[in-house]
Amino acid sequence: MSGLDDLLAESNDRWSRAMRNAQDVKDLGLGQAVRTYYIRYFPAGVLVLIVAGTALGLLLFRGNPSAWPQYLALGLVLAAAGTVIGGLIYNAKKVSPAARLPSGDILFPLESEERKQINRQIAGKAPIDREHLSVARAGAVQQRKGLARLFLLMPSNLFLFASLTANWAGQAAPLAWLMLAAVAATITGMVFLIRDFRRAGRFLTTTPAF
C-alpha cells in the first residue's frame, strides 16, 4: 500500500502546485481585444500597406502593365511585414494586459496525461473535473492568450504566401500552385485557431469561477 500512497501523494502535490499557479488567473477581455484588432486596425492597416506597396511597385517597374503581379506581390510583402510588426505591438499593448497570468506555464507541474485531460475538458471532449476546475479554467485563459497571439501573427504568413503566388503567377514552374496551397493551409490553420479560441472562451463562460 505504501507504493499506492506514494503515487497519491505525488499526484496531490502536483495538483496543489498547479492550483497555486492558477490563483488569480483571469480573462480580462481577450475576445474583445482580438475583435477590436480585426475590426478596427487590421483592415485599415492592410489596405494602406497593399496600396503603398503597389504604388512603390509602379515606380520600380515604371508602370509596365505586364508587371502587375509584381506590383501586387510587393504590396502583399509590405502587408506581411506590417502585420508582424503591428501584431506584436498590439499583442504587447492590448492582448497581454487582457489576461492575468503568472509568468510560467500554469500546467507545468502536471504530467503529460493530466495536461491532456485538462485540454480535453476545455475542448468539451471530457467531463469537467470539479475538484480541479480552477486549474482547468486557468489553463483555458492561458490557452486563449497563446491563441490570440498566434491569431494576430498568422496573417503575415498568408500575405507572404499570397505575394509569392502573385510573383510566380503565369510561370511554367508549379511554384505558384505550391504557394496557393500554402495560402489555403494557412487559412485552414486560422479557422482552427478561431475554433479553439472560441471553445476555450465557451468553457470559461459555462463553468463557475472560484
What does this structure look like?
This protein has 210 residues and is an all-alpha fold. The chain has one domain. The chain contains 6 helices and 2 strands, in the order H-E-H-H-E-H-H-H. Strands 1-2 form a two-stranded antiparallel ribbon. The longest helix has 35 residues, at 133-167. The chain is elongated. It starts with a helix and ends with a helix. The model has no long low-confidence stretch (mean pLDDT 90).
Please indicate the count of domains.
Answer: 1
Total beta strands:
2
Strand content: under 5%
Q: Write down the Rg.
A: 23 Å
Helix content: over 70%
Structural class: mainly alpha
Low-confidence stretches: none
Sheet with most strands: strand arrangement: 1-2
Short description:
This protein has 210 residues and is mostly helical. The protein has helices at 2-21, 30-60, 68-95, 112-122, 133-167, 175-206, and strands at residues 26-27, 99-100.
Itemize the secondary structure elements and their pairings:
Blueprint: H1 2-21, E1 26-27, H2 30-60, H3 68-95, E2 99-100, H4 112-122, H5 133-167, H6 175-206
Antiparallel strand pairs: 1-2
Helix pairs in contact: 2-3, 2-5, 3-5, 4-5, 5-6
Descriptive terms for the model:
75% helix, 210 residues, 2% strand, 2 strands, two-stranded antiparallel ribbon
